[in-house]
């Protein structure tokens, strides 16, 4: 055996021993997860909450803070995300409804937030995501709320106005679109299909590269990929994962008009999330029709040095030329300073709805 072969053999033996130790420790962690489940269900409890987003956020932040290895912080956190997902599945399988079918960006965001041990439950519309959670068919739902280039997702906004569900988590995904088809040539493409948001994000690219093609909006990008699988004259806009899943040829990558293209997703459910130490709170308000009304509301936050990260207006469905505002601020609703601000906002608003508080995502 050469010196190089001996060195490699020694290192591989070290790796084998380290893997053995890692496996033993993961097994010990799994036992602890089972003990947690036993404690939560003792006495026949049936309403125990197993998924605690604030606890998971704290664990993942700690993983990143203590990471001093050659692995990047994000990679280390993703490894622990999967360990936590498998352990949670031992306590209670978690079902999450999302805009399907499999292979959509919503599906990818479910896996990012909950790990691959989640029970992903695809439905056909955003409205059906909320309905599945409200009816108890899923523990949580995950919906897109805003894209960095195309703005808000109106159907999600509509449901957030209507529902009694709470926002309990936030996921941000980089979105890089691919053009895919059974065909291998652009000349054979007669129609491009995708979700309306994706078509908007790729509008200029389509005009420049497929000027003669018809454009059709469908319920999801993954559905578009399924349609393209059945018709070689169609091209879908979707993810690389969708191309692999539906066995399509990728004709072009990164076709989004703005390459800094991100979509924000929210987790919705029936549970109220406890403080994690670094949180956001979201609310919806409408204001009285008088001079300075919006300024009066915003001063409730500014005078307490509360950072507002987002404010979006949209027409009210109740009254012509009236508007509602979606507002995000830093902090948890139970933080004394923010609680005081929210109480004051409610007194100054014509309509007030607290959507929930949730951890700032560590991933």
TrEMBL record:
Its EC number is 4.2.1.51, 5.4.99.5. PROSITE patterns: ACT, CHORISMATE_MUT_2, PREPHENATE_DEHYDR_3. SUPFAM superfamilies: ACT-like, Chorismate mutase II, Periplasmic binding protein-like II. The record marks 263 as: Essential for prephenate dehydratase activity. It catalyses: prephenate + H(+) = 3-phenylpyruvate + CO2 + H2O; chorismate = prephenate. GO terms for molecular function: chorismate mutase activity; prephenate dehydratase activity. The gene is pheA. Residues 2-95 form the Chorismate mutase domain. One of its GO terms (cellular component) is cytoplasm. Residues 1-28 form a coiled coil. CDD domains: ACT_CM-PDT, PBP2_PDT_1. This is Bifunctional chorismate mutase/prephenate dehydratase. Residues 282-359 form the ACT domain. Residues 95-270 form the Prephenate dehydratase domain. It is found in: Cytoplasm.
